[in-house]
Every structure is written in structure tokens, then in C-alpha cells.
# Entry
Amino acid sequence: MALWGCFLMGLAHADVTWPSKAIRFVVPFAPGGTSEIVARSVAAELTKQLGVSVYVENKPGGAGVTAMQDVAKAAPDGHTIILGHVGTLAVNPYMLKNQPYDVNKDFMPVTLLAKVPNVFVIHPDVPAKNFKEFVDYAKKNPGQLNYGSAGNASAGHLAMEYLKLVTGMYITHIPYRGTGPQLTDLLAGRTQASSAGMPALGAHIRAGKLRAIAVGTTQRIAALPDVPTIAELGFKDFETAQWYGILTPAGTPPEIVKRLQEESYKALRSSAVTERFATDNAVGGGGPSSDFANFIKNEQRIWSDIVKRAQIKPD
# Structure
């Protein structure tokens, strides 16, 4: 019987057919932000490669908790995946109490999709032409400026709180339900500053509707060669970037995780995705599940410290 049982188990693994239906790709933010752009770019290629629809479902709310809880409860069959990022995976575990899931136990990392530089921007009406002038102005007017973000624990929220921590300036955080809504108010001058990725900000910067004052990467980016990094402005070792990856519910068969990682790697190297990422200064990933798992652990180490020092709390 034992031999027969082993045979049946082996047969079951051998007969795993994936995908057998459409794949739901959950994005824990509203439409209009970098997260959706990355997800849709990859989903379009996966749809071509896999022969089934890989459709993006935006599910904002609760600093990403709503979407994460939904996917944690989904069947672990590879037909429901989620876009993970710094907020949901590396900050929420230390900022939020009593999450209805464990990010390290209830999800299986598949692959890192992209790293996107954080760009710090201000509305042109702010009386500052550069980063130093903005910091000086904010310090002279504590609490008088507002910055918007895609929501609590979003990449933009974290980047700005990190910046506040190292510069000592005080700016009020206004959380929105997605990058799109927060940009609407920033462009209208109802908020004065923000940090987001080039995919969401590039067109507005080029049109002169927003002023880029710094980037969060360690090197200047090709799209904004005249915009300095925070580190070169005197804040040594400052680095912050948005990053995105795919996860599945825990218990997803390893064969499916491996296939999804391989197909994602292929999608990231398609001309459509590489051209889009180049335009947005995004760096593609695609490595194995183990690499993404180690990357998440390192980010958790970094951000657990920043959450504590900056006293980042739920809004």
C-alpha cells in the first residue's frame, strides 16, 4: 500500500495542469499608479505566453490588507496571484497589529518583477526651485505643507516618511486610495509634494506641471539626468525605491510556482516590457523564488527599523 500511495502521489504531481483557466492578478491599489502599470505590462505578456487570460483586478483598501487577505484565502492552485510590494510585505508586519494573515507563512514568493526609482516632486506653486530650498521652506513652515500618497504604507508614503526622518522637516501626510487620486490633488495644488515612480510622474514632470527635486536611488536616472539623488545632497546611504513582485497563496504546488517564475522571466524580457520599463527607468527582475524570498527578508530588516525610528503608524 505504501508503494501504491507513493505512486499515486507522484502521478498527482505529474498530472498538474496549469493554467487550466483565467488567472486573476490582484493589485492592492487603485488604478493609475506604478503598481498597476507594472502588473498590466507583465500580465499582457503572460496572457500571450500561457494562452489564458491573465487579468488585473485592482483591490485597494486597508494599506493593502484587503487584497492580501483575499488572496491568502484563495485556492493555492496558481490561478490567483498578487502583486506584492514594500508596503504590504516589509512595512505592514511592523506597522499594523493583528493582521489577518502572516506575510511570511501565508504566501509563496514567486519572483521579483521590477524595481522603480522613487522620484520626489513638488507643485510648481511651492516657492522652492530645488531640494535644499524645499527642505528649508518646509522647516520654516512646519506642518503647513501637505504631501499625498497612494495610501498608508504605500511606497510613496514610506519614501516621504524616510525623507522626513533624515531631514528633520515636518510635512503632513494625506493618504489617498491610489496614486491616481493623489496625483489629481497634487496637480491641482491641493497638496504640495509627493513621491512616486516615473511611470506615474514622468508625463507631468515633462509638461512642467510638477517639479522633480530629487530621486531616491543611489545613482541619478537617465530620464532626469539633472535631478540629484538624496544621497549626493548630503544624506549618505539614503536609498529608497519601489519594488514589485508576484506571490501566490501558500501551498501552491512548487511545479506551478516554478513555471510561473519562468514565464514571468520570459515576459520581463519581451520587447514590449523591456521598452516600457526602459521608458520608466524600471529595472526588471525575474529571478527564482528563493532570491525573492531573501530580498523580502532583507527589506523587512531595513524597514522594520525605519518604521520604529520614524514612528510610522496607521492613519
Observations:
- The first helix runs from residue 2 to 14.
- The two ends are 58 Å apart (CA to CA).
